[in-house]
Amino acid sequence: MVKRQSVLLTTSRRPTVNVRTLCKDLSYVFPNIVRVNRGKLSLEEVAEKAMEFNAEKLIIVDRWEKGFGKIEFFEVRRDGLRKVLPIVYLRNAKFRRDFEEQKHRREKIKSVLVATVSNGNFEIKKFEDFFASFFNVPALSFEDAVNSNCDAIMQVLVDYLKRMAITFRLIPELVEVGSRIEIAHLAWKATQ
C-alpha cells in the first residue's frame, strides 16, 4: 500500500458554518487529513501548524461573502507554502448529513481512491490526476475502483449542463456519502 502523506485542512479566517461543515465532511472521507481550526492564524502560522503535524500538504477552504468561495491547495516547505493549482471555485455543496449514508456507516473512512470517469474530457482527467497525486491515492477506472478493497471512491462528475461536481461513494454499496461539492470553475493558471 502507498504511504499516506498527512494533509492539514483548515479554513479562511471567520469561516461560515457551511465552510466548517464542508471541512468536517472532507476530514471524514480522506483518511490522511488533519483538520484544525484556523482562528486568527496568519498564513505563515498555518504553515508552522502544518509542520507541527508533519503535514506535507495544506488545504484552505475559503469563504466568499456568506457562502462558499474556493479551495486552495499548498505544498508545505521549510521556506513556506507553495501554491499548487488548480484553485477550485465552489458553487455549492451538499453535506453528509443530507445523504442516506447515515444509515449505512458512521465511522470514518479508512481508505479512498479516485474512480476515473473522464470520458475523454481533458479537464476532468487532469483534475482526477491532480486529486490522486495530491492525496497520494490510486486512480483507477470506475470498474476497477468498485472491485477494489477501499472503503470509498471519489468521482468527478459532469451533469447535463456541463457543471462539475466532486462526489464520494461507499464501496461496495455505491451509496453516496457526501459531501457533493459543486464546482463553479477551475483555475489552472495563477492570477497573481
Low-confidence spans = none
Total number of strands: 10
CATH first level of the largest domain: which class?
Alpha Beta
Gyration radius, to the nearest Å?
A: 16 Å
Helix content: 10-25%
Structural class: alpha/beta
Tell me what the CATH architecture of the largest domain is.
3-Layer(aba) Sandwich
- Name the helix and strand elements from N-terminus to C-terminus, one letter apiece: EHEHEEEEHEHEEE
The end-to-end distance, rounded to whole angstroms, is 38 Å
Average of the residue pLDDT scores: 87
Summarize the main sheet.
10 strands, mixed
- CATH fold title of the largest domain: Rossmann fold
- The total domain count is 2
Main sheet: which strands, in order across? 2-1-3-4-5-10-9-8-6-7
Percent of residues in beta strands: 35-45%
- Alpha plus pi helix count: 4
Structure description:
The protein has 4 helices and 10 strands. The chain is of the alpha/beta class and 192 residues long. The chain folds into 2 domains: 7-89, Brix domain (Rossmann fold), CATH 3.40.50.10480; 98-185, Rossmann fold (3-Layer(aba) Sandwich), CATH 3.40.50. The longest helix has 14 residues, at 122-135. It is globular, with a radius of gyration of 16 Å.
Short description:
This protein has 192 residues and is an alpha/beta fold.
Features:
single chain; 192 residues; alpha/beta; Rossmann fold; 2 domains; ten-stranded mixed sheet; 4 helices; 10 strands
Secondary-structure map with pairings?
Blueprint: E1 7-11, H1 17-29, E2 33-35, H2 43-52, E3 57-64, E4 67-77, E5 80-94, E6 112-116, H3 122-135, E7 139-141, H4 142-146, E8 152-158, E9 164-170, E10 180-187
Parallel strand pairs: 1-2, 1-3, 6-7, 6-8
Antiparallel strand pairs: 3-4, 4-5, 5-10, 8-9, 9-10
